[in-house]
Design goal:
Largest sheet: 10 strands, mixed
Order of helices and strands: HEHEHEHEEHEHEHEHEEHHHH
Helix content: 25-40%
Strand content: 15-25%
Number of helices: 12
CATH topology of the largest domain: D-Maltodextrin-Binding Protein, domain 2
CATH class of the largest domain: Alpha Beta
Length: 320
């Protein structure tokens, strides 16, 4: 048998085992995260380690382009699960927003709402850029196609009357944007993720420092009314070295899967996520880990829960 065919058959067998295999067999459970400089990636690694059970469930975290890429990968079967902003997950499942007029993903299901993802707009310290309106004519990184950050950046710019044609957009990840900002080749970049974010912390400590732009006032209020998945948020002073606090917005970070994935596997993974041991590990491992709690798990659910997760939440008394 040729190697290519062997690999294909093995991959097909693995997929069949994950989606339809009995709960007693070893289950492989991939988690699509985001870029290595963001918050999804380290959180995903901690969760994968915590919910894996030798001989039963093998969870792995995989770097990806983020929310949109993850929900599409779940739909296509190349991932069993992934992290997504709540807005992207809702649009994907219901066929609204950026999925309007496109093929939606009706089988998308929620495992858990994890934590709020804060909208960061980063500029170089002393740049003279004080508000979103000042970004006109500037070199601005909006993140890569497939990311939830790009979707949100477009909405925020529009709320301030700015079109993409009014800026010099770049479609790169935050770590690349940070490097370009250090080199003086970029004026600002958007990042949506849990604070503190590694790429921004590193940039704040080097390269002359940074500032964050506020998103508040009538523009923020209008955004929340038009897109209820946005919530008021704030980045406290000193979250990043020598950076003043700002008011901003956030969306929920959610862990999603497909209705096709085995219910017992999802039940065991959800149960393991909220065990005392995992909760302590998450709280100690990352600033946003403290917010991954049973209480927050069922907040802001814009799509149906997976039956396995729903079963656990009902047993735990947080869903009726």
């Amino acid at each position: 048998m040729k190697p290519k065919f062997s690999i294909a058959i093995a991959a097909a067998a693995l997929a069949a085992c994950v989606l339809t295999g009995p709960a007693s067999a070893q289950q492989f459970f991939r988690i699509g995260t985001g870029g290595t400089a963001g918050t999804y990636y380290p959180i995903g690694g901690m969760i994968a380690n915590a919910v894996s059970v030798p001989g039963k469930i093998v969870a792995t975290a995989q770097a990806s382009n983020g929310s949109l890429a993850n929900v599409n990968a779940v739909a296509g079967g190349s991932l069993e699960s992934g992290f997504s902003q709540s807005d992207v997950a809702t649009w994907a499942q219901k066929g609204t927003g950026i999925f309007e007029g496109k093929t939606n993903i009706p089988e998308l299901r929620l495992i858990a709402n994890l934590y709020p993802e804060t909208v960061h707009i980063v500029v170089k310290k002393g740049s003279g850029i004080r508000s979103v309106a000042d970004l006109k004519g500037k070199r601005v990184a909006l993140d890569e196609p497939g990311s939830g950050t790009l979707v949100n950046a477009r909405l925020i710019l529009a709320a301030y009357g700015i079109k993409e044609a009014d800026i010099k957009p770049e479609y790169i990840k935050p770590n690349q944007a940070g490097d370009k900002m250090k080199d003086g080749a970029l004026d600002a970049f958007f990042f949506v993720g849990g604070a503190p974010a590694g790429a921004i912390s590193e940039l704040a400590s080097s390269g002359g420092g940074i500032e964050l732009l506020p998103i508040d006032g009538p523009q923020a209020e209008g955004l929340r009314m038009a897109s209820p998945f946005f919530a008021n948020d704030a980045v406290p002073a000193a979250t990043y070295k020598d950076v003043a606090g700002v008011n901003t917005l956030s969306v929920g970070a959610q862990w999603v899967t497909s209705a096709k994935v085995d219910a017992e596997t999802v039940y065991q993974i959800t149960k393991a996520l909220y065990s005392d041991t995992t909760q302590k590990t998450l709280a100690a491992g990352h600033a946003k880990g403290k917010l991954i709690t049973l209480k927050n798990a069922v907040m802001g659910a814009g799509i149906p829960f997976h039956p396995g997760a729903e079963r656990f939440y009902k047993e735990a008394g947080v869903l009726k």
